[in-house]
Amino acid sequence: MTDPYILVPSHQVNMGTPSTASTMSSSLVKDFETHVIFCGNEFPSDDLQSVFGCLQRHSRDKKFPFLNVFLTECVEMVKREVALFPQELRETLPPFQNVVALATYFAGNRHAPLAGALDGSLLCMLQVGMLIGHYESQGLDYTFHRHSSRLVGLSIGLMTAAAISVSSSLSDLSRAGVESARIAFRIAVHVERVSRLIEPRAEDEQPSSWAYVVTGLTEDEVQKEVDGFNAASVSQRKTHTGPSSC
Question: Cβ neighbours of residue 180 under 8 Å, at least 6 residues apart?
């Protein structure tokens, strides 16, 4: 019996190269009727430059038009996002023209100011890119049976799962995938900002995982505070954006 679990991304996705040899058969991908697609929150154990280099090389082949569009748009998206930052932060990221350059920088600078944003964004790029690449390498139609298949996402993998779920074609996925990478980028920037507000750290101090536990409150008290915070946030957004116009 075929294993019903598909990991995205992983060495299971076949693009015709030894390092990504597949145990996911064409028939398995064609028939999503009873399968679970799991989008995790970690990079594969392979060297990131090699994995993204594989994607980049395939994207230059005419057989992979949607992969080419997806990777190109992802690079442009990161450029637009970085352009929104102050100059001193923009200058921490060297010029780049493709995803390989981004992956190479990230692999060697995992504690850089923008490393967190690149981490989540690159993971989405890799997950969506591997899936698009697999379909195009096999010449398969993008089919997904929403009523009986299941998408599971963990942490940033939720962004990839969302992109897959709203896409009815590779063209859709190549666009939705860019948005998932953008959201992952912005989430990481926001988390970093909140982290510094809660507990500032020295400029030369390396970031680390953190969590806060609030004790001594009942569930009703916590819910009241959360509801009040959410209501205030919505009110602030309406004030900043102003009334909508037709």
Answer: 124, 128, 159, 160, 162, 163
